[in-house]
Amino acid sequence: MSKFLNIINDISRLHHRAAFSDLPQRIAAKDSVFQTLARERYTCRKFKNTKLSDVEISHILEAGRLAPSAKNAQPVHVWVARSDEALEKIGQTSKSIYGAPVVLIVGCKPEDAWVRELDGKNEAEVDAAIAATYMMLEATALELGSVWVGSFDPAKVHELFPETSGWDIVCLLPVGHPDMEPGPNHAKRKAKEEFATEL
Questions:
Q1: For a Cys staple, 177 with which of 5, 6, 48, 56, CB 3.0–4.6 Å?
Q2: What local confidence, expressed as pLDDT, does residue 197 receive?
Q3: What integer pLDDT is reported at residue 23 of this predicted model?
Q4: For the segment 89-143, what is each residue's pLDDT rounded down to a tens digit?
């Protein structure tokens, strides 16, 4: 390589290093795409009477399908309640559906999950919670609202939806077009010093 090309190459490397030398500061100065998404998600307790498209539902389910699980066991299943009949039934299991046009029933099967040998901790519910969280965040990315519902009657779910038999129901996830703004408690978070401790 000629002396001239060597000089150009050196200048290019210096410029490249200089361009990225302040990268940590630049990253710290603004939220990541994920942090923006996490801030935008809020508990939605009022939905518009607007149906979701097949594409929207497919995107949300795909996010849950891609969610990680312990040992990749994937002991999770999701049932989509969106017909008038299914929504009427799901309304009998919980008072917290808020008129959503779609309710996802998230279940797990402990016998299919990874179990920690040291103390017998079964990770099925954790895996289902991760999948449900991924679906909530995907709904937010699609500018939809969602709410994690833990107040429901699991026995009634099994009675009205026999397809769920043999699965532990972890949560209901109403999803739809939001008809409300975030509530006053949405932005309230513990200080970082309370939330995390460096060891």
A1: 48
A2: 95
A3: 59
A4: 999 999 999 999 999 999 999 999 999 999 999 999 999 999 999 999 999 999 9
Token pair of 21 as six digits: 């030398």
Q: Cα–Cα distance between 25 and 18 in angstroms, integer?
A: 13
Strand order in the sheet with 102-108: 76-81, 102-108, 168-176, 145-146
SS3 content of the chain, % helix, strand, coil (to 5): 45, 15, 40
Q: In sequence order, which ranges of 66-188 are alpha helices (DSSP H)?
A: 84-93, 124-141, 154-160
| Mean of pLDDT values over 52-70 | 98
Average pLDDT of the chain, as a whole number: 91
Q: Give 139's contacts (C-beta < 8 A, 6+ positions apart).
A: 60, 145, 146, 175
Residue 65 near residue 132, CB atoms below 8 Å: no
Give the Cα separation of 51 and 29 in Å (integer): 39
Name the CATH code of domain 42-176 (choices 3.40.50.720, 3.40.1050.10, 2.60.40.10, 3.40.109.10).
3.40.109.10
Question: Cα separation of 87 and 14, whole Å?
Answer: 62
The share of the chain scoring above pLDDT 90, in percent, equals 82
